[in-house]
Write a structure and sequence with these properties.
2 copies of one chain form a homodimer. Chain A has about 400 residues and is of the alpha/beta class. Chain A has 14 helices and 14 strands. The first copy, chain A, has an 8-stranded mixed β-sheet with strand order 10-9-11-1-12-13-2-14, sandwiched between helices. In chain A, strands 3, 4, 5, 6, 7 and 8 form a 6-stranded antiparallel β-sheet that branches. At the A-B interface, helix 4 and helix 13 of A face helix 14 of B.
Chain lengths: ~400, ~400
């Protein structure tokens, strides 16, 4: 079922959809036979909502496939992430509100530490402070031949590098070896249309190395994930929804902006601040995406107890959403990040969908095994949007 | 999600995957409300493994579709059996280790009994002994015009017929009427590129009839399933796995060889002998496919009790596999063969997937209804391989 098919069925309605995405929500027990993070968390509000919801487990891309944030989010926004692809650099550039031109190339950059032998000793340059990173980034912004290089700090060691010029293909390998203890790689063109880009990017990197020579631990840069703006069909037009995104972290703000959502300003950075933003803007939009980052960070850190606490924090805030009387509520995640694995994983993600006319499963529990018993089954995450639209009475009959 | 997508995500790991396939495993109760074969069998080892596994039901091709061994196996090996097709003749030829040339055409043949009126009275020629079959096959190997016909006994009445020459298309109908009481059919070309093949095969059959005239009950041959070597992408390269196949029956050895697995020699023909082969070769491969034929044969014979006993035999051998400490274990089947139907059927196949980081369902029972409650849901059998690879930590993230 492609997006055009769905778009042709859209009808207007006075209904609101709220999607709460806890990043990396899905988990695993610490011990065989134990409970996963979400099953361990005390979540009376989510459990009560689950009882009135349809439950299921979402797969971001397909069985067994672990995803990065980009494809994980595209999927919950209804886009097939195999068909619609985003480079990491593009996400970073859009996330920091860089005004991209149609031919600009964006890449993800890292400040890193390199030793005298040219070996990368710390891919994250000791996570240098954001302000120091900004100062160094200014040094690197330059022009080589007819091509401009903009270097912008995202946060700490993380950079967005935008290359502006003509004839710049993006079929390139990255210079980031993705591990410490080895030298950076040369950037190579995979197609002839990208040879100019490769040549200039290698010059740019060489120049950066020289400029940063005495700036240890940020004495080198690594570059990867080159891409043009993908020009995806826009979420608000596809689905007929005035759509707002509430996220603190730039990557998620970037993804939302790439699909045309309006990214709202959040005063503060706590989940409660995000709920305040939701309340303030409730009357002005039909669809809200609210992103919670700390579930994923706790999972990546292997901190089971902290992930549990973040889930409990969201649970405690849920009544503020429900007080707004949303017509459809989805609570789910973009992928799993089990604390026991300290990384994203392939496990399907617990998901609930509440609406007035949803066929509720009557399972008064929100967790991995509860969702495995739910009537949504194990479903592609991209199927959530059509189900949400149907429950929001925003899809007409097919075949009429 | 196609094979190329998956192949691009493969990373190396020091992990081992074992796949135990009980042919025709899925069943049905003898009486409504009763238990199926697997549910009836006493399987303490499988039940204990199920408790630590994710359970589900696999569909070889799609809902309602009953399969032959070829597509059933391609699917569990991760290939879409609608896209990747094998002729039955090719399976037989590869299974008996016939050295096929790239342009060779292979067909499945049967010795059969025919009466004076030209009506087939026994499509299996009384299952003549293999040795007698071999003697007769020798009579039939011949050359017509510039084309060679090799006739090789597979077992009893079953033959592989290989046609070697140039300009031999394979768009042909078979001569086998697939039931007794009617005459054989003429072989017809369905496309013009196959007219030469049709003409020569009909001449070959006419010649065989004359040579076998006094050999009742093997006084005729039936031919079907013409095909070239399919040249599929190879399993070991696709998935980065040194892959071994352990099977006694030639058909399954043939399928495994067609996808590039190394087919191991089994001393003896009992399931226990297959487990001995597994143990002996454990250190040399990353992936093991172990095939159990007798579940299917018992099902085909309508022998419910015997199918139960074969399952119990496998259950008793399971600890020998587990003692090898496999990282991922799949126990399933290529299709269902309910004894009550005496044939392959469309019913999804009970399947368990055990691994250290699998999200276990905690269902301590391996059976049709237990698997219907499992978190793998009802899934295409071809999705098992990506899930197995993920659990073997052999897939990297998508979208990095």
């Amino acid at each position: 079922m492609d997006l055009q098919f769905l778009q042709d069925l859209i009808v207007p309605a006075q209904t609101k959809i709220a999607m709460i995405i806890m990043d990396g929500l899905g988990g695993l027990p610490l011990e065989p036979g134990g409970k996963a993070e979400l099953e361990t968390a005390r979540t009376p509000n989510l459990d009560a909502l689950a009882a009135q919801s349809a439950l299921g487990l979402t797969m971001p891309v397909g069985p067994g496939i672990t995803v990065e944030s980009g494809p994980g989010h595209l999927s919950i926004f209804g886009y097939d992430p195999i068909q619609y692809r985003i480079g990491r650099g593009m996400l970073e550039a859009v996330g920091i509100d860089f005004e991209l031109g149609p031919n600009d190339v964006a890449a993800r950059g890292n400040f890193c530490a390199m030793d005298a032998a040219g070996v990368v000793t710390d891919r994250r340059a000791g996570r240098i402070p954001t302000q120091a990173s900004r100062e160094l980034a200014k040094l690197l912004t330059t022009k080589i031949d007819d091509v401009e290089f903009f270097v912008e700090t995202v946060k700490e060691h993380r950079l967005a590098i935008i290359v502006r010029g003509t004839g710049l293909g993006v079929a390139l390998t990255g210079s980031d070896p993705l591990r410490n203890g080895v030298p950076p790689l040369p950037v190579r063109a995979l197609k002839s249309d990208s040879e100019k880009t490769a040549r200039l990017v290698n010059q740019f990197i060489k120049r950066a190395r020289s400029l940063l020579a005495d700036k240890h631990p940020a004495n080198m840069i690594l570059v990867r994930g080159f891409d043009h703006h993908p020009g995806f069909p826009k979420f608000p037009e596809l689905f007929g929804l005035r759509a707002a995104a509430i996220a603190v972290n730039s990557t998620y703000r970037g993804i939302a902006k790439l699909v045309g959502m309006q990214v709202l300003k959040v005063e503060g950075s706590a989940v409660a601040d995000e709920f305040t933003t939701l309340e303030k803007n409730w009357n002005d939009f039909d669809f809200f995406y609210l992103h919670v980052k700390n579930t994923d960070l706790a999972g990546e850190d292997g901190d089971f107890a902290r992930k549990v606490r973040v889930i409990e924090e969201v649970d405690a805030l849920l009544p503020r959403l429900l007080a707004l009387k949303p017509d459809v509520v989805i609570v789910g995640g973009d992928h799993s990040t089990p604390a026991v694995l300290k990384s994203h994983s392939w496990h399907p993600v617990p998901t609930l969908l509440y609406a007035k006319y949803v066929r509720a499963d009557g399972i008064a529990e929100f967790g991995e095994r509860a969702c495995a018993r739910g009537s949504l089954g194990v479903l592609p995450a991209k199927d959530l949007m059509p189900i949400a639209l149907a429950n929001a009475q925003r899809l007409t009959k097919f075949g009429a």
